[in-house]
């Protein structure tokens, strides 16, 4: 039995549902620690041009009445010959590509005078995330942080106003450090009447979820496998900000590899201390520990639900075909769902070697 899909037009700031859009094509994707995307094709005369606006509107596909994706409408293409309008949206996280971690601090007793400042703190990383979403809440998309419950991992950040730190970039960097974590956004109903949508940020420890075992030509088709050795590193070098005297803090991590000497070097111009560089060096070394095998596969229809494949989950993949010898755990990095007019789903997945996500830094 096909799933009943609907695409809702939502006002991004308030979450108010404004319309249901009849679609002739729908695809949506989730990406590990990224925004993901959605493409919706509707008849050219199916939308109100005074309310469905790029930058103002959000799109929320629902399956059997429950939201399965959500994000902001950033582009639209009208094909007058075909009589169609193609809508291109990116997940809620794409909004934070347009927000920066700066704030106006008014002078006491005179709110019209003051100074722009950046962000400085040493906090548990979930509390740091709460700070950032609160800092960008005014005029924003009201991301709910109530589900951020992780404890025990402290980080320090010190960004001046002149560094104008991008929030999405800051979140991604925080997620990659040390033990790391996965983050994603849930789109949910805000009220029982189902007239308003909410989005909330969630996190989980890295590699803490799983997906079903997939076997080539049994329950999935492995369509392609690529192998990437460009991140291999016998030593990873992480440099920080120049202190103005030609000196930079530095952190390194080594890997014992059966390769020629290979170095990976990255400068983090907003990091000012060696302690803050250590988790970054560890993340670089983890990514350089082995060549990255990147399988792409399509799941056989009717066997699984899209929700069984969440980015960041680990699962066993098996395939044997000539040069290809897959028989190991892989991490799901992207999930794509295509939906036809009848609600029939097609699920395709992109994965990467689990080794890339293992770090020796548990701080």
> What spatial form do the alpha-carbon principal axes imply?
flat
The helix-strand sequence is EEEEEEEEEEEHEHEEEEEEEHEEEE
User: What value does the average pLDDT take?
Assistant: 93
- For the termini, the CA-CA separation is 47 Å
Structural class by SSE content: mainly beta
In helices, the fraction of residues equals under 10%
Radius of gyration: 22 Å
Main pleated sheet: 14 strands, mixed
Spans of 5+ residues with little confidence (pLDDT < 50)? none
Give the helix tally: 3
Strand content: 35-45%
Q: Count the E strands.
A: 23
Give your account of this protein's structure.
This protein has 363 residues and is mostly beta strands. It contains three helices and 23 strands. The protein has helices at residues 125-135, 167-176, 274-287, and strands at 5-11, 17-21, 25-31, 37-43, 57-63, 66-67, 71-79, 84-91, 103-107, 110-117, 119-124, 154-159, 181-189, 197-205, 214-215, 220-228, 235-239, 250-254, 263-267, 292-299, 314-321, 324-339, 345-353. Strands 1, 2, 3, 4, 5, 6, 7, 8, 15, 16, 20, 21, 22 and 23 form a 14-stranded mixed β-sheet that branches. A three-stranded mixed β-sheet has the order 18-17-19, covered by helices on one side. A two-stranded antiparallel ribbon has the order 9-10. The model has no long low-confidence stretch (mean pLDDT 93).
List its traits:
single chain; 363 residues; mainly beta; 14-stranded mixed beta sheet; 3-stranded mixed beta sheet
Summarize the topology.
Blueprint: E1 5-11, E2 17-21, E3 25-31, E4 37-43, E5 57-63, E6 66-67, E7 71-79, E8 84-91, E9 103-107, E10 110-117, E11 119-124, H1 125-135, E12 154-159, H2 167-176, E13 181-189, E14 197-205, E15 214-215, E16 220-228, E17 235-239, E18 250-254, E19 263-267, H3 274-287, E20 292-299, E21 314-321, E22 324-339, E23 345-353
Parallel strand pairs: 15-21, 17-19
Antiparallel strand pairs: 1-2, 1-5, 3-4, 3-22, 4-8, 5-6, 5-7, 7-8, 9-10, 11-12, 13-14, 16-20, 17-18, 20-23, 21-22, 22-23
